[in-house]
Design goal:
With about 270 residues, this protein is an alpha/beta fold. It contains ten helices and ten strands.
């Protein structure tokens, strides 16, 4: 009788974040549905740690959330005088020096930066509310598949703040300056239909089909050779900062590397 397969369990499970790895696929799950997956500095540190724990076998990272909401954004406890247990409150941070405040925000941002590494493709599965920091976390990923009940909103401006968790660059890249400004300045909801029509989402499906749609997309990404996907992602990421001729040059260099590798002539 064959012995049961060994289940190593989650690679990380703390502070509202769980990381599981199944060969080429890693799944990062927000696990505090009772608070609509509201975010905190502890959650951001856990997300950063999840990125550092990814083994080299991982090609695709799926970001998902338990419950009816993807993430309702920053936990409002951050704005209270007491803040979070064991953490400086945001009011205390505001009273500190500029260098300290800048370093703290930079640390928070690290939870949002690793999703665009060229060696992985990240896919956000988004349902219900994705507000503020939740919207920015979805924007941190390469691709977004959304349920038809999704509601994106950037509410920072209405709180007297600005979006500072790396969301402004991808938002402008996806929808353009004018629409990005309107979304941020008004704080309005962006529904599934608009998200798909403007490029914020790759695909919208009924909520009960979200997991299946993500599975199909991940399978399609994994069907292509890893090195070709890595090179293509890097090529497309760099296109925003190159003119037409520079992009042509980058394409030739990338293709030369691929051809040499396929011919067994790589480094």
């Amino acid at each position: 009788m064959a012995s049961p397969a060994h289940d190593p369990g989650p690679a990380l499970d703390k502070d509202g974040v769980r990381l599981t790895v199944d060969d080429a696929i890693a799944t990062v799950t927000l696990t505090n549905p009772a608070k609509r997956n509201a975010q905190s500095p502890a959650l951001w540190r856990a997300l950063t740690e999840a990125g550092r724990l990814l083994p080299g076998s991982v090609r695709v990272v799926v970001l998902r959330a338990e419950g009816k909401s993807f993430s309702a954004g920053l936990d409002r406890q951050a704005f209270t005088p007491e803040g979070f247990d064991g953490e400086p409150s945001f009011l205390d941070l505001a009273r500190g020096g500029d260098a300290e405040l800048d370093a703290t925000i930079a640390e928070y941002q690290e939870a949002f930066t690793w999703w665009r590494r060229s060696d992985i493709v990240s896919v956000a599965a988004v349902q219900g509310h994705a507000i503020g920091a939740g919207f920015q976390l979805a924007l941190a990923c390469d691709l977004r598949v959304v349920a038809d009940d999704v509601q994106f909103a950037m509410r920072e401006t209405s709180l007297g703040l600005v979006p500072d968790l790396t969301g402004t660059h991808p938002l402008v890249s996806l929808v353009g300056y004018a629409r990005a400004l309107e979304i941020c300045a008004t704080g309005r909801f962006v529904t599934a239909e608009e998200a798909v029509n403007t490029g914020l989402a790759n695909l919208a499906v009924p909520a009960d089909q979200l997991d299946g749609a993500v599975h199909d997309l991940v399978s399609a990404v994994l069907s292509a050779p890893r090195d070709a996907v890595v090179e293509t992602k890097a090529l497309l990421q760099g296109a925003q900062n190159r003119d037409y001729e520079a992009q042509r040059t980058a394409e030739r260099a990338a293709q030369a590397r691929r051809l040499r590798d396929l011919a067994g002539l790589g480094d």
